[in-house]
Amino acid sequence: MRYITVENLSFQYDNEPVLEGINYHVDSGEFVTLTGENGAAKSTLIKATLGILKPKIGSVTISEVNKDGKKLRLAYLPQQIASFNAGFPSTVHEFVKSGRYPRNGWFRRLDKHDEEHVKISLESVGMWDYRHRRIGSLSGGQKQRAVIARMFASDPDIFVLDEPTTGMDSGTTKTFYELMHHSAHRHGKAVLMITHDPEEVKEFVDRNIHLVRNNSLPWRCFNVHESDEKESL
């Protein structure tokens, strides 16, 4: 099922175009990466897709329902989101558990299934052993992993991730990619992930969207080259 459709999207900062004629899509059940050279406006494209930035022209359609006909849930992880200070009062476990409440209502107690989902989410990013630590006492990389675990716990239909493995070691990174692949292929989730290291993730993804410079234009502007990851990565 098509979850995201972007057609003829162009975006500019002030009077400087940075994206021109972008077309791409993301379906349920696939893990898609977004790559490009430094400064290729990858984060800008994500923000324009999500409505955080307003495109100059073009259309973006995000499905209102998931593959099961229920209200679609989307989770967005911006780049380096973890910025909790030392006084942040929640433990890691409490923080990740809070990701379950929007699914069930804020005043409903979590059941055994919820608790198991929280545990799996923490284990998937190597944070189960840190569950009783205060968020504010963690390193930057550990905070990033706690934020990702909370996102997992919310069980969205679409994961939109901007370089999510920042601060992860190689073992945790591979486990994360395996989980994203499993979420897409076994549970029908859609994953759209910006990465600076396509070689690292290529065995897990289905397609790659690569932003390339449009040399026919007089300004620094990018459009899309899209292909099967086995051909492009």
From TrEMBL:
Taxonomic superkingdom: Bacteria
Gene Ontology BP, a term: zinc ion transport
Family to which this protein belongs: Belongs to the ABC transporter superfamily.
The UniProt record lists the keyword Zinc: yes
Name of the protein described by the UniProt record: Zinc transport system ATP-binding protein AdcC
The keyword Zinc belongs to this UniProt entry's keyword annotation: yes
Domain ABC transporter residue range list: 4-233
Annotated keywords: ATP-binding, Competence, Hydrolase, Ion transport, Nucleotide-binding, Transport, Zinc, Zinc transport
GO molecular function term, any single one: ATP hydrolysis activity
InterPro entries: AAA+_ATPase (IPR003593), ABC_transporter-like_ATP-bd (IPR003439), ABC_transporter-like_CS (IPR017871), Metal_Ion_Import_ABC (IPR050153), P-loop_NTPase (IPR027417)
Function of the protein: Part of the ATP-driven transport system AdcABC for zinc. Required for transformability.
